[in-house]
Amino acid sequence: MKLQKLARKFDLPCFVCEDINDEKSLEKIASFEPDLLVSMSFDQIFKGRILKSYEGKIINCHASKLPFYRGRNNLNWVLINDEKEFGVSVHFVDSGVDTGDIILQKCYAISDEDDYSTLLKRAYKACAFLLYEAVLLFLNPPVKSYSQAGFVCKRRGSGDELIDWTLSTRELFNFIRALNAPNLGASAFINGVLIKLYKSEILKQEFKGAIGEIVSVSDEGFIVCTKDGALKIIKYKGEVALG
């Protein structure tokens, strides 16, 4: 449920700020005399004045095992990098990107059955519960936290979705499931036609063919040769044929 709709349901004040750091937003926030500011899936960076005014009173929930995978598209990257778990972290907000001291953190296993869509659903649910748990801590200050050091994930851009068939079978499998969402999808040009790939399966049997060559097409999908095996594409969008 959208935040605005939820606020209306419970008769709570709600406003959308174009710039969290401008004078209008700062005045609006100050009018509530808040004890705590909570951020989740927020696409703006808190800057000088608001950070100074509410030092130690702004927290954020980030869907990664901080200090690793800061920044954007982190759930895509954990799959691409073949991680075996992903994390959810609640941390204080500072002037960096997801660099503030960590308050709470939980980790969850990733299986080969997972893809971007399943991780996103799990992360949304986990973030909500962990944020609630963190907010309760502020009822009995001081709130304990610990510092972090790690790396930032870059935001994925146009062209990043194109398949590189020279990758290993496992890397291709991870790449495809990392982009499994209706508005995403890994992309490949097959016989000059753009195809969107959403789900694949690593095959154990051997097939003869060049890297990136389609060696079989059926109602269940199509099989592509890789440098170290074969991959069966079982969910895709587009027309595929041999040759």
TrEMBL record:
Source organism of this protein record: Campylobacter upsaliensis
GO molecular function: methionyl-tRNA formyltransferase activity
Stored SUPFAM superfamilies: FMT C-terminal domain-like, Formyltransferase
Transmembrane segments annotated in the record for this chain: none
The keyword Hydrolase is annotated on this UniProt entry: no
Stretches assigned to the Formyl transferase N-terminal domain: 21-127
Domain spans labelled Formyl transferase C-terminal: 160-236
Entry protein name: Methionyl-tRNA formyltransferase
GO cellular component: cytosol
Keyword tags: Transferase
Cited InterPro entries: Formyl_trans_C, Formyl_transf_N, Formyl_transf_N_sf, Formyl_transferase-like_C_sf
